[in-house]
């Protein structure tokens, strides 16, 4: 088992996903974690398998792999993030929230975790909760214009158009050529009756496209 896991890890690091998958699936058939006691990191084979399955959009298999990994390493926030994102990929926002919420409340300084929490709440259309989580993610990564764009969407859906506009202006300042940010800002301004400003932003979006 140790040799197979080492082969799988090395093959994955070298980009040989086929060999990595074959070795790791042989090492842990049907998710049998009892065979991994001799490993320094018993969760690693399941973690790598989860990543491999995600790459091929096998989200149900990835979900199962991450569940096994978390059972072996329950303190790993990164595994909870992957589990939550797999739930979202499978159209299960409530399951994603259940997987992420407790960990996110304990680990407020984890950017990926807070962003995934916001995405889970947004998928469940819990916009106030999504806004809070994405505000925290944005505080942790103020230069991430993608997070600001998601924050703006949550703010708009929560009825806070002013915060949405502020977030989109910040996003545009950080990424002035991002067509999606420009169009979102223009749409918001147009909906607010600021047609001259909206036309100017639409023009910038057209030039950037």
Sum this structure up briefly:
The chain has 209 residues and is mainly alpha-helical. The chain has 12 helices and no strands.
Set out the fold topology.
Blueprint: H1 2-13, H2 17-27, H3 44-55, H4 59-72, H5 77-89, H6 93-106, H7 111-123, H8 127-140, H9 145-157, H10 161-174, H11 179-191, H12 195-208
Helix pairs in contact: 1-2, 2-3, 3-4, 4-5, 5-6, 5-7, 6-7, 7-8, 7-9, 8-9, 9-10, 10-11, 11-12
Q: How would you portray this structure in words?
A:
The protein is mostly helical. The protein is built from 12 helices and no strands. The protein has helices spanning 2-13, 17-27, 44-55, 59-72, 77-89, 93-106, 111-123, 127-140, 145-157, 161-174, 179-191, 195-208. Helix 8 packs antiparallel against helix 9 (145-157). The longest helix has 14 residues, at 59-72. The protein is elongated. The N and C termini lie far apart (52 Å).
Structural class: mainly alpha
**Total number of strands:** 0
Whole-number average pLDDT?
A: 94
DSSP strand content: under 5%
Q: Judging from the principal axes of the Cα atoms, what is the shape?
A: elongated
Q: Residue share in helices?
A: over 70%
Largest sheet: none
Radius of gyration: 21 Å
Q: Give the distance, in angstroms, between the N- and C-terminal Cα atoms.
A: 52 Å
Query: Given the structure, what is the number of helices?
Result: 12
List keywords for this structure.
mainly alpha; 209 residues; elongated; single chain; 12 helices
């Amino acid at each position: 088992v140790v040799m197979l896991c080492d082969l799988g890890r090395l093959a994955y690091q070298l980009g040989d996903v086929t060999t990595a998958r074959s070795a790791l699936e042989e090492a842990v058939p049907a998710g049998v974690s009892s065979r991994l006691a001799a490993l320094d990191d018993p969760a690693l084979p399941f973690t790598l398998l989860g990543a491999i399955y995600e790459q091929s959009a096998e989200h149900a298999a990835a979900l199962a792999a991450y569940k096994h990994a978390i059972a072996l390493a329950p303190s790993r926030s990164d595994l909870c993030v992957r589990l939550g994102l797999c739930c979202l990929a499978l159209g299960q926002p409530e399951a994603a929230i259940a997987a992420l919420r407790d960990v996110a409340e304990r680990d407020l300084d984890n950017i990926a975790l807070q962003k995934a929490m916001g995405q889970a709440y947004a998928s469940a259309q819990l916009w106030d909760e999504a806004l809070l989580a994405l505000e925290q993610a944005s505080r942790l990564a103020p230069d991430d214009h993608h997070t600001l764009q998601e924050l703006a969407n949550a703010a708009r859906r929560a009825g806070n158009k002013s915060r949405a506009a502020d977030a989109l202006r910040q996003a545009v300042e950080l990424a002035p050529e991002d067509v999606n940010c420009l169009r979102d800002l223009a749409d918001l301004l147009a909906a607010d009756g600021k047609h001259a400003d909206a036309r100017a932003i639409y023009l910038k979006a057209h030039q950037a496209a």
